[in-house]
Amino acid sequence: MAPLTNGRVLFNSVPTGFPEPGKTTVYDNSHTIDLENVPLKGGILLKTLVLSIDPYLRGRMRGPEIKSYAPPFTLGEPIMSHGIAVVLRSELAGVNPGDHIYGALPHEQYIVRHNIAGLRVIENKHNLPWSVFLGAAGMPGETAFMGWREYARAQKGETVFVSTGAGPVGSLVIQIAKEEGLKVIASAGSDEKVKFMKEIGADVAFNYKTTNMREVLTQEGPIDIYWDNVGGETLEAALDAAGVNARFIECGMISGYNTGGAPIRNLMQVVAKSITISGFIVSRLEPRWMKDFGEYMLPRLASGKFKYTEEITKGLDKVGDVILAVQKGTNKAKAVIQVADE
Amino acid sequence: MAPLTNGRVLFNSVPTGFPEPGKTTVYDNSHTIDLENVPLKGGILLKTLVLSIDPYLRGRMRGPEIKSYAPPFTLGEPIMSHGIAVVLRSELAGVNPGDHIYGALPHEQYIVRHNIAGLRVIENKHNLPWSVFLGAAGMPGETAFMGWREYARAQKGETVFVSTGAGPVGSLVIQIAKEEGLKVIASAGSDEKVKFMKEIGADVAFNYKTTNMREVLTQEGPIDIYWDNVGGETLEAALDAAGVNARFIECGMISGYNTGGAPIRNLMQVVAKSITISGFIVSRLEPRWMKDFGEYMLPRLASGKFKYTEEITKGLDKVGDVILAVQKGTNKAKAVIQVADE
């Protein structure tokens, strides 16, 4: 078989504001690969099927001099994100052709790895689409479930406010909270997303671009729990609308990712109202909650009790556009790149 | 006996920046009182001995339209703060002349109260000066002890950073942390305060006005626990110098009290580092910790194991100046107004 093009998405330059397709990242098709003969040296050959595009990727698009929890991308090398690949060939004990591999993968059509450090073979007992393992059944789903279990201390009848409630994390937080008997207020940036949030049970859902957020929160609050994915003005409004002993779960602050951080001016409310703010990175919670997550989430997704949405874009060459859409919030649902069919 | 002047400190106008003596508050000597004949109607007559001047008083100097945890002062009426008074006369069962009363008192030389709601008779088994019940043995001491017990989750060998470490709260946090085997970094605003912080055990003590705080924290950190009394730039520096799973205890944010709030630009660190920020008001912790507080703190103060400093100013007419000094940090130690001798 003749060598095939092995398309890749390379980190090309550090963005100062929003990441620019073709500049921040570039699609490169200069590499080829001979699938039958490429030497594996005891490793495995993977074919990438689906890749996840997540808000946190913006944080990795930085110079190596800036420290943060996830390492920066390397200029000239493929960017990475969670994905699913299928094993085409294997010289590694315990991994067989046809196995599916989950983990942080380089944005590359075909991948040779000498080991599976950081990756794992996944089963799919409930026959969910593979893309779901990048959303509700994967890292975003874990984020919602584990962050809630660890920090919410939710009581039936309490009120939770969820920002980006139509996203893969927020939409699961809404559904978990409703199952536990809370009143849910949820915000998102389009009427279509508001409709989805109502479908999955939000008691109050609004479009923050066209609604006076502070009025809604004042009327529907006080807030006992705030699930924050955005930071900035929304966090300020939530602090002002919080009740005594409120719990704020800080999952992300996308409003500041492309502006160098959005200032918070009323943090004194944490003193006045005895608020606890808990930030977290899901990987640090996995050791404690991974088993519970699978038992809780997979049956609910398979039965349709918990709903999710996806926006699947075909082709690795579209990665730059989808990254930008996720940063701007113009994507319609959990963003997935379909790199190849099985 | 002829009527005596009953001096008072009145709330006169809402400040926009720092409170101004003679404008924000005024000393008024237009009232008189006949101690022997003033009718008590079943109540008590108190003679005020000492009054506490605390940072939080700034928050009560606001218009009635702004909600916060402590009610606003009433224009034209005496301001209030924690104090100790002695009972001169009593028609109330269970309260006797010579008893000492602790609680929030109006700034007034003599007080007629019809009940003791919000106040309590205190004993002084260890023969501490009464002023100590406004500092280390009172609300500031409770704040240090109860906030630490509730939120620090301290482990021997960890590093704590204490801001305003020479103040009545911070100086006790330092001593509690040293007793529990932590490394203590502490900051204050004068060399004299730095000296005191070293005397009470701080491993690293610095004057934030003359020292590069970020350099100290980078070199001596990462911080596992941050005890915050100031907010603003100090909190930003602490967020940047924090380690993973750090606990931030938010006791106050005086840097913003006179400026409308100091913005925090790097709150995203709570996500990146899985930081928990816990704000609190000590009165909400009292039900849980009051008994432990007395058993822990009073013997340590009486034996001299725990040290404290006080700056006692004589005369109710000085209240406005002392309030301003506490807001600016130019006071040298826990500020107490001595209104009268026993």
UniProtKB/TrEMBL annotation, chains A, B:
<dbReference type="InterPro" id="IPR036291">
    <property type="entry name" value="NAD(P)-bd_dom_sf"/>
</dbReference>
<dbReference type="InterPro" id="IPR011032">
    <property type="entry name" value="GroES-like_sf"/>
</dbReference>
<dbReference type="Pfam" id="PF00107">
    <property type="entry name" value="ADH_zinc_N"/>
</dbReference>
<dbReference type="InterPro" id="IPR045010">
    <property type="entry name" value="MDR_fam"/>
</dbReference>
<dbReference type="InterPro" id="IPR020843">
    <property type="entry name" value="ER"/>
</dbReference>
<dbReference type="InterPro" id="IPR013149">
    <property type="entry name" value="ADH-like_C"/>
</dbReference>
<feature type="domain" description="Enoyl reductase (ER)">
    <location>
        <begin position="25"/>
        <end position="337"/>
    </location>
</feature>
<dbReference type="Pfam" id="PF16884">
    <property type="entry name" value="ADH_N_2"/>
</dbReference>
<keyword id="KW-0560">Oxidoreductase</keyword>
<dbReference type="GO" id="GO:0016628">
    <property type="term" value="F:oxidoreductase activity, acting on the CH-CH group of donors, NAD or NADP as acceptor"/>
</dbReference>
<protein>
    <recommendedName>
        <fullName>Enoyl reductase (ER) domain-containing protein</fullName>
    </recommendedName>
</protein>
<dbReference type="InterPro" id="IPR041694">
    <property type="entry name" value="ADH_N_2"/>
</dbReference>
